[in-house]
Amino acid sequence: MCFSEKIARLLSLSFLFSERVDVRLVGGGSRCAGVVERYDQGEWRIVGAGWDQKHVAAVVCRQLGCGSNVSVLPGHTAKGFLVSCSGSESSLRECLRGYDLHPGLTVICSESVRLVDGAGLCSGRVEVKSNQSWASVCEADFDRQDAEVVCRDVGCGAPAALQGGLYGDGEGQTRDKEFQCKGNESLLLDCDTSDRENNTCLPGNAVGLTCSGKKQFVTQSTLFLTWSEEYERQYRCVSVRK
Known about the structure:
Layout: H1 3-21, E1 23-30, E2 33-40, E3 43-49, H2 53-63, E4 69-83, E5 96-109, E6 113-117, E7 123-130, E8 133-136, H3 144-153, E9 159-164, E10 177-180, E11 192-195, E12 207-211, E13 218-220, E14 223-227, E15 233-237
Parallel strand pairs: 3-4
Antiparallel strand pairs: 1-2, 2-3, 2-5, 4-5, 6-7, 7-8, 7-12, 9-12, 10-11, 13-14, 14-15
C-alpha cells in the first residue's frame, strides 16, 4: 500500500471513529444504557427530543452498535442538543435541529439482539450480535419460545408472527448456533444454545418476527405516559393517593 493510500485509509477510519464516539450513554451501568450525551467543541452535552423520543433512541442504539432500543425515559432539564429523528438515520448527527433548554433522554438498548428491516420498532429480521458483528438466525433454529424471549428482550409485547424470509435475508452471515429458550428468560443471551445439526441455511430462511406493540408505563410525579405502535404517544394526569 502506497503512502497516499495509507493516509486516505487513516482519514476514513478517523471519520468512522468520530461518528461513533460523538454519542454516548452514561450512568446506566453499561455502554448500552444511560443518559444520551453528544460531544461537541470539547464538551459532552445532553440530548433531548420531542414526540419522537423512541425514534431518537433507535438511532442512538444503532449508532452505538447496541441493538434495538428497549426503553426511553425523560431526564433532567438542561441546555443541550435538540434532535428529531425518523428512526432510519445511521447517526444522531443527521437529526440535529438546534440547541436549547429541554429535558434529556435516558435510553436502554437491548445490546445483543435487534429486529431490522421491519415496518416498526417491534418487527423485522432477527439478528444476534456475536464477536462484534451481527448475524441473522435460520428459521429452523428458532421457535415460539425463542420468539417470546426476543420480543421481551427488545421491549415489545408477545410474538404475533414468525416466518422465514419475511424481512429478507440480510447481507451478513447466519448464526451457527441454535437457541433453546424456555420462554421465560429476560434476555436472549440467557438461553441455552447448541450447535446446529445442519450448517446450511438456505436463502429465504432468515427468520422474521413481528411482536405486538411496544408499551411502556412511566411514572414521573403525576404524569402517566403510555406508548404503543398504533397510537404514537398519549399523556394523561392521574391522581396519586397518599
